[in-house]
Structure prediction request, 219 residues.
Amino acid sequence: MTPTTRRKRLGRPPATDSDVTRQRIIEAAQRHFGEKGYERATNGDIARELDLTSGSIYHHFGSKAQLYVAACEDARATTVAFLEEAVAGRSSLISRLTAILESAVDLNRQQPSFSRFLTSAPGEARQHPELGMAVAAYMTELAGFVGRLIDEAMAAGEIAEHANPASVVCLIQAMMLGLAQFAAAAPEGALPDVMAQCERLISGTLFTAAQPIVRSVGQ
Prediction:
């Protein structure tokens, strides 16, 4: 998914030159924040990549924190649109989850720095409280999307009645973020087989028989 197709998918109205420049800055910022982290990425580096002045960055965004917040808000809209496209036309929870995980891996292949930006955001928010609200909004929207899928699956009898929906949502989020992080550092050629095993896990065909869960004392 290229930056151009991302913009088309979001259905933005025809852009002015200022809008285009702002979007270019946001997408470059996502790459720099994803590759270098919030601390090491600078507005100057972003400006040089785009052949702009630092003053142009500050004209659109008053500070690096404001630029990060804008990048996070853009990523939130892009991610939800990406996920909606992945599940379109699929009715069962297993087929939807499989499509989501496959799409997340494809996104990592196409835009690894964008994926790193998404997966690193919660950690950045913990270190830099000024980013917290934007990252929390992103995570809340992601949870809302997954929650809708879980609610529909429970209504259709695809999930055991005793399951805690909120915990299932957290589990799916953890799988999505975990696979994205693994994809960024996986040995070459390892990811396809890991994805295959993950799909077997989701479909219930990975293990030969159910095993009792033995918890440690005190758990």
